[in-house]
């Protein structure tokens, strides 16, 4: 019941451009569940749309909305500490309020993916899209499952 009071008043959906025609690769997600992820090569452009909708038509104040393309490495002996070796950011909206659904376009051109995505026993290296809606009390953050980076 307490989770109801702290749930986010906002739904965020991230769609990647051309993900339906791009090569997919199977990888482990949360709790070892297998998921399909689009494969992006070094130098590919990563673009798409972000749809944000308020629940129950409520007005939501925010201090800005941004999207990031992140490359992160996690060492399993050092859980909780992620090293972000790549972080590209794009502002989607200035501070204001939302009353209805909004869709934003984003694009990161010719992204250099220095390393291949990898998940092993001791290390996890991944690329992902992160959307952050900054708010006074608590930010709303959504991470797009994964974007696999593979070198040519």
Give structural notes:
With 152 residues, this protein is mostly beta strands. The protein has one domain: Immunoglobulin-like. Helices cover 3% and strands 59% of the residues. The chain contains 1 helix and 12 strands, in the order αββββββββββββ. Strands 2, 3, 6, 7, 10, 11 and 12 form a 7-stranded mixed β-sheet that branches. A 3-stranded antiparallel β-sheet has the order 1-4-9, with no helix packed on it. The longest helix has 5 residues. The chain is globular and about 45 Å long. The N terminus is likely disordered.
Layout of secondary structure:
Blueprint: H1 2-6, E1 10-16, E2 24-28, E3 34-41, E4 46-54, E5 60-62, E6 65-75, E7 82-93, E8 96-98, E9 102-108, E10 118-119, E11 123-133, E12 140-150
